Amino acid sequence: MRQKILRLFILTVCLSSSNAYAQIDRLVEGVRSRVSDAAEAATVVLEADRHRLEAERMFAAGQYDAARRELQVAAEIVGPTDQLRVQGDLLLHDYASKLNQSFAAIEDAREPAAFPGYAATRAGLSFIESVLTANSLPTALAAIVTVESAGDRSALSSKGARGLWQLMPDTARRYGLRVDNHVDERIYPVKSTQAAARYLRDLYDMFNDWPLVLAAYNGGENRILKLIEKTRIHRFTEMADRGLLPAETILYVPAVLSLMYPEISRD
């Protein structure tokens, strides 16, 4: 009886060991497969990214059609990859999203609104008004574009402000735009308008007064906040009459307001 029990025990141990070895083999094979897939995904991304980076260089130079062709090549490199793998592999999934963003940026820059002089027409202003409305802002604020850049999306000031809305680099980055040696999203009409709208909304939350908002947009919110704190003056006209603002700002605010609809008054 004891021998029978011993044989059964030995048999059980052997079977358990066999199952354990089988599980280890499957685990090792799974790891090898994942490592192989990851290496293949990395190779695909590296090859495609050469074309994406070249597209960024072309885009920065204003060569939009050539940039789009480079992005198309990058997409074709990733394209043959099994779509289930793209969804399952984080590297491929993130890279596919990055390509989509790059395509969107080019289409953004190719919009009719990107051409100089468009701000003078109602049709050209339509997308700006839509963005302003979506941000609960008066559509009359589109007049800022006319004064700031005359509708030239590539306009660049001596102080470094750029784009339709003449955003400074730090302000642009604060509101989600990419500004570096390769890409400057301030020249993207829709993206820059969305950023400017959020900025204007924040300024209104600070000052609750449109002339002061425009003064802050031109001269910087910190300047206006410090001026209010120091003088307790809350009206643009009084600040201007006392010469407390830069000459550029004193001229800027009425210039914008003169183009705006009656829903925004000077005082």
Based on the model shown, name its key terms:
267 residues; mainly alpha; Lysozyme; 2 domains; 12 helices; 69% helix; elongated; disordered C terminus
Descriptive report:
- The chain contains twelve helices and no strands.
- The protein has helices spanning 2-60, 64-78, 83-88, 90-109, 122-134, 143-149, 169-174, 189-207, 210-219, 221-231, 236-241, 247-259.
- Helix 2 (64-78) packs antiparallel against helix 4.
- The radius of gyration is 30 Å and the shape is elongated.
- The model is unreliable at 81-88, 111-123 and 263-267 (pLDDT under 50).
List the helices and strands and how they pair.
Blueprint: H1 2-60, H2 64-78, H3 83-88, H4 90-109, H5 122-134, H6 143-149, H7 169-174, H8 189-207, H9 210-219, H10 221-231, H11 236-241, H12 247-259
Helix pairs in contact: 1-2, 1-4, 2-4, 5-8, 6-12, 8-9, 9-10, 9-12
Produce a short descriptive summary.
With 267 residues, the protein is mainly alpha-helical. The chain is 69% helix and 0% strand.
- Quickly give the CATH architecture of the largest domain: Orthogonal Bundle
Calculate the mean pLDDT score and round it: 76
Which CATH class of the largest domain is shown? Answer: Mainly Alpha
Structural class: mainly alpha
Q: Give the helix proportion (percent range).
A: 55-70%
CATH topology of the largest domain: Lysozyme
What is the 3D shape? elongated
Largest sheet report = none
> Ranges with pLDDT <50 over ≥5 residues?
81-88, 111-123, 263-267
How many DSSP helices? 12
Number of strands: 0
| CA radius of gyration | 30 Å
Q: What count of domains describes the coordinates?
A: 2
Quote the distance from N terminus to C terminus.
106 Å
Fraction in beta strands: under 5%
Helices and strands, in order, run as HHHHHHHHHHHH
